[in-house]
Amino acid sequence: MSDKADLRIILANPRGFCAGVDRAIEIVEKALVKYGAPVYVRHEIVHNKFVVDRLRDMGAVFVDELDSVPDGVPVIFSAHGVPKSVPEAAESRQLEYLDATCPLVSKVHRGAERHHADGKHILLIGHAGHPEVIGTMGQLPPGSMTLIETEQDAENLQVENPENLAFVTQTTLSLDDTAKIISILQSRFPAIEVPKKEDICYATTNRQHAVKLIATDADAILVLGAPNSSNSNRLVEVAKREGCDRSVLVERAKDIDWSKLDGISTLGITAGASAPEILVEEVIDACRERYNVTVETLTLTNENVTFKLPRQLAS
Fold this sequence. Notes:
The protein is an alpha/beta fold. The chain has helices at 19-35, 49-58, 85-92, 103-117, 131-137, 151-156, 175-188, 202-215, 230-241, 277-290; strands at residues 5-13, 39-42, 60-63, 75-77, 97-99, 121-125, 145-148, 165-169, 220-224, 247-250, 266-271, 291-299. The protein has three domains: 6-17 and 202-299, 4-hydroxy-3-methylbut-2-enyl diphosphate reductase, catalytic domain (Cobalt-precorrin-4 Transmethylase, domain 1, 3-Layer(aba) Sandwich), CATH 3.40.1010.20; 19-102, 3-Layer(aba) Sandwich (Rossmann fold); 103-188, Cobalt-precorrin-4 Transmethylase, domain 1.
């Protein structure tokens, strides 16, 4: 008879890779096949060390800026998007580039451009310093966009022409936090123009709703994801808000602090949009070493979104 305690694991579905991440990783893999190693990638292709390390082992070289890319080799732009100055710099050096920007991030870029063409000043709801925010702000001339990070920012904002505003958002934000910020902006600036369609992407939305479902039933939740992954950090916050105080972000099974799981009988597991399923399986295996595990899945919806590859790689 086993002296292990029983542990019920609830897997949130959807979890893990989204269509934009799948596409970005496939772009690097197919570029390595087409061009041969090395293929250069500006910034982490997605925010996940396991993914980046695997692609590096296959021959991808990750660099911070184009200055580190030698002439005559292809370069890939990460899924988070880049300022317009980056492809312009690549073109000026006649570098072949492949743009792995998530199409849903590109949609935000086009929305911002459309508002700018209409003469609007744009408010970008997002997190300062995140690559997606840097990329979105870099679509337009300096001063065209104001970053709004918090409800306080929305309350304190002063603008020259309150009748001539529009907003866009980062795609990986907390739905609840963003809704509060938007509510403040719409109450202060009733004429503000809204996105034609929600900017927060389907994958962020689904993963947050799915973690809410498991949070009400779990004693603790592990979110698989990287510390610099915006959508993964939001999942931890959402789970805590739903009442599961013992919700933590971990990169790998080896990072779990098992003492924090003492006394639990039900563990929820989910994964950010850039975390591969193999890392979830690794955590379940680690749990099996310590507990008698049963696994069930709670499904919010099944995703079937796919995105086309850039024309250079379309087979």
